[in-house]
């Protein structure tokens, strides 16, 4: 809630700035740090619903891990923050990078026993669980198709996803346990960005990316956002997002496997230079 309150205050302050400066701003040119380049730096705040499952053995030993669903642990929703930087160079070359973080937490009695990293948790055990999600993305696109106020830009990029899980509870013998595991996966992606500009400084954009790595997993991303330029160097935005990834290791008799999906909405502000 603190993050959302901070985001709301930021948006309110930005809107007040727009009301104060709207008339003189209409004749202003946007500030450019480097000629022929335009950068946007900003932050989104929002809420996401998370889902997925994981199989975490101990040292790859058969029987030392079993699959557990995130919803059974109560880690199915959280606040999320995304920091992003976009660049347009020589009009047609587009670069973008962002980092999304979320930390779903939950407390729940499990309905079925499971094994996590060699430790067995019995049915009806009360568990406190925390998941730490970090999703880094970088991509390059080129405006291949431009028509009036719209463009279509194919892109290539890279996603790096890190998932950490901490489970606090009791094992089958009643001993207190705190079990932590962190995993990550890297995915090359192909995608496309479509954007259309409307009057009064409003834009609507859609980003779609994905890749299937055959034996190692897959990743997909969908992001739809609306931007409103309230000042030549300040924009407000709202958006919806959906991201899914699956990762499977292949170097042990029993491999780490996990699937993660997040979907939600966000509001944010960006500054141009």
| Main sheet record | 10 strands, antiparallel, barrel
Given the C-alpha coordinates, what overall shape results? elongated
CATH H-tier superfamily: OMPT-like
Give the helix tally. 1
Number of strands: 15
Task: Please give the CATH architecture.
Answer: Beta Barrel
Question: Termini separation (Å)?
Answer: 30 Å
Low-confidence stretches: 18-26
Q: Which fold name corresponds to the CATH topology?
A: Lipocalin
Compute the number of structural domains: 1
Spatial order of the strands in the main sheet?
1-3-4-8-10-11-12-13-14-15
Structural class: mainly beta
β-sheet strand percentage: over 45%
Helix and strand pattern: HEEEEEEEEEEEEEEE
Protein name: Outer membrane protein beta-barrel domain-containing protein
Organism: Desulfomonile tiedjei
Q: How would you sum up this structure, described in words?
A:
The protein has one domain: Beta Barrel (Lipocalin). Strand 12 and strand 13 form a beta hairpin. It is mainly β and 273 residues long. About 3% of the residues have low confidence. The strands form 2 sheets. A 10-stranded antiparallel barrel has the order 1-3-4-8-10-11-12-13-14-15. A two-stranded antiparallel sheet has the order 6-7. 9% of the residues lie in helices and 65% in strands. It comes from Desulfomonile tiedjei. This is Outer membrane protein beta-barrel domain-containing protein.
Structure in a nutshell:
With 273 residues, the chain is mainly beta.
Task: Show the helix and strand layout.
Blueprint: H1 2-25, E1 37-55, E2 67-69, E3 77-89, E4 93-102, E5 105-109, E6 114-116, E7 119-121, E8 126-142, E9 145-147, E10 150-170, E11 176-198, E12 202-212, E13 217-231, E14 234-248, E15 257-272
Antiparallel strand pairs: 1-2, 1-3, 1-15, 3-4, 4-8, 5-8, 6-7, 8-10, 9-10, 10-11, 11-12, 12-13, 13-14, 14-15
């Amino acid at each position: 809630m603190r993050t959302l309150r901070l985001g709301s205050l930021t948006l309110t302050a930005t809107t007040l700035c727009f009301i104060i400066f709207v008339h003189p701003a209409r004749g202003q040119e946007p500030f450019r740090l480097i000629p022929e380049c335009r950068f946007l730096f900003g932050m989104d705040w929002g809420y996401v619903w998370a889902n997925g499952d994981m199989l975490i053995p101990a040292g790859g030993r058969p029987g030392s891990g079993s699959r557990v669903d995130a919803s059974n642990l109560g880690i199915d929703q959280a606040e999320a923050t995304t920091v992003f930087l976009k660049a347009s160079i020589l009009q047609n070359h587009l670069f973008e990078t962002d980092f999304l973080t979320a930390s779903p937490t939950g407390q729940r009695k499990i309905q079925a026993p499971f094994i996590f990293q060699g430790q067995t948790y019995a049915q009806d055990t009360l568990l406190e669980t925390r998941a730490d999600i970090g999703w880094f993305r970088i991509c390059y696109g080129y405006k291949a198709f431009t028509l009036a106020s719209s463009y279509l830009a194919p892109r290539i990029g890279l996603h790096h996803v890190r998932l950490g899980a901490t489970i606090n509870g009791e094992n089958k013998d009643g001993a207190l346990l705190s079990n932590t595991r962190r995993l990550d996966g890297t995915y090359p992606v192909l995608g496309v960005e479509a954007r259309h500009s409307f009057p009064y400084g409003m834009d609507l954009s859609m980003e779609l990316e994905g890749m299937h790595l055959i034996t190692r997993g897959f990743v997909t991303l969908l992001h739809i956002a609306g931007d409103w330029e309230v000042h030549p160097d300040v924009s407000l935005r709202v958006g919806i997002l959906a991201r899914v990834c699956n990762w499977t290791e292949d170097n042990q008799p029993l491999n780490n496997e996990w699937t993660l999906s997040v979907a939600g909405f966000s509001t944010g502000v960006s500054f141009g230079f």
